[in-house]
Amino acid sequence: MPSSAHTDGIPDIADIRAAAERLAGTAVRTPLLESSRLNDRIGARVLLKCETFQPMGAFKIRGAWNRISKLPDAERRRGVIAFSSGNHAQAVALTAQRFGIPATIVMPSNAPAVKIANTRAYGAEVVLYDRDTEDREGIAASIIAKTGAVLVPPFDHPDVIAGQGTLALEIVEHCGETGIVPDVAVVPCSGGGLIAGCAIALHDAWPELEIHAAEPAGYDDTARSLASGIRERNRPGETSICDALLVEAPGELTFRINRAHLSGGAAVTDEEVKNAMRAAFEDAKLVVEPGGAAGLAAVLHRKIDVVDRTVCVVLSGGNVDAALFADAIGAG
Q: How far is residue 331's CA from residue 173's CA, in Å, rounded to a whole number?
């Protein structure tokens, strides 16, 4: 059952602020960086929220820590389980290690090798599966039936959503300290947990702010769902280098939040994502993974109108295999 006190399961700004208190000393207050070269390239003032600097290289530590830290001792002793292509996997594994509890992570066999290796290095048991032929949720359910482990969902849980929303609290704080009022925010989106949490916090501060989801081409389920008003599914067999953003459909809870807050969504191709990774490296000296660069790709390729405006772009992670990164920046 959701641990949120709200009958609709949707967290509010108070939940996000409480999550920030739990995360103090664990999640890094990541910088909001600006590059004049990138501004000139895009024709806007671009503020980059660099979650690449989190302890395990992505924003996911926020939601995983908030969820696990709220579990009662009896549930922690049973251990935790998660399914993920990598960043949520690492976040759950690291959090479980810090709390001294066992963790099992169900990961696709074709996940980036660096993410599988890091998850194991944090002490988790990794169960690999075939993304094209096997059901990760079914595998996790089978393990839960045998072990009693507690599921830590990747996005569709109020504690996870509230944890991810702490990222936006930091954007609001930084902008308040520097006198900035943004016009637009662009956030990478898979199941919708990150952008849902961010939308709650951003609209608490700036109700008129435009908030856009950035998704891989072929996985633009949130954009299509916003347009139709119902949760749309992606077609089987699509591929993308954005491994962190590949889900079948938006979450039930996250879509309820995002339908109320988002202005729309944009789909970006693999080549556009590589261009964004290269721009982040050349103009801002940042290493960003494909999924983490989706928002920047949408802005760079004018999928969202930001010209002569101030835009906050979330760079959600930096866990990229060296060979793929070298290819993206033209060093291969």
A: 37
